[in-house]
């Protein structure tokens, strides 16, 4: 099934000109896939607009959806700590997500919102926003945090366990205006939420692996 057949496509909403501010304002009105119907708001990227390092996560979580900024929840705290331990200043980065709206299911007596991973159609629909961000920031290194980000950047064959922690060429990302999103290096690692989900025995090992992968990134930037 193609995106045309599903009607999932954000490209008509992506402006052909303007900087990140224009992109962020336009993204607030994106209706490129059904996820906007239940989400509180679009959560666009944030950070240093000329950063040498751009980090891509999966999608906003519950707190990000409410506050309108990426990585402001517990996973963001893990990411900032791991960046600092790897020798990278979190303030010198740009962070975003492969999908800009929170996808969730409701469960339990209070109908708590529980994260649900976006599917390939939703990832493809949102790809023009990510391509435009990468092109405008023009980083030297892109970090894919987790499987969804890796698939959005490298294709559906990506596997975190196989591809993490090594410098890979960043493949072309065609923007909505037909321009390539830029050239650079990509390093994949696990999403910091995977550290939070790990049991007590595995959590320290998962965090150490995240830091080790980010040290590869720091070496590329040095």
TrEMBL record:
Pfam families attached to this UniProt entry: UDG
Keywords in alphabetical order: 4Fe-4S, DNA damage, DNA repair, Hydrolase, Iron, Iron-sulfur, Metal-binding
Domain Uracil-DNA glycosylase-like: 44-215
Domain of life: Bacteria
MF terms (GO), sorted A to Z: 4 iron, 4 sulfur cluster binding; deaminated base DNA N-glycosylase activity; metal ion binding
GO biological process: DNA repair
Family: Belongs to the uracil-DNA glycosylase (UDG) superfamily. Type 4 (UDGa) family.
Protein name: Type-4 uracil-DNA glycosylase
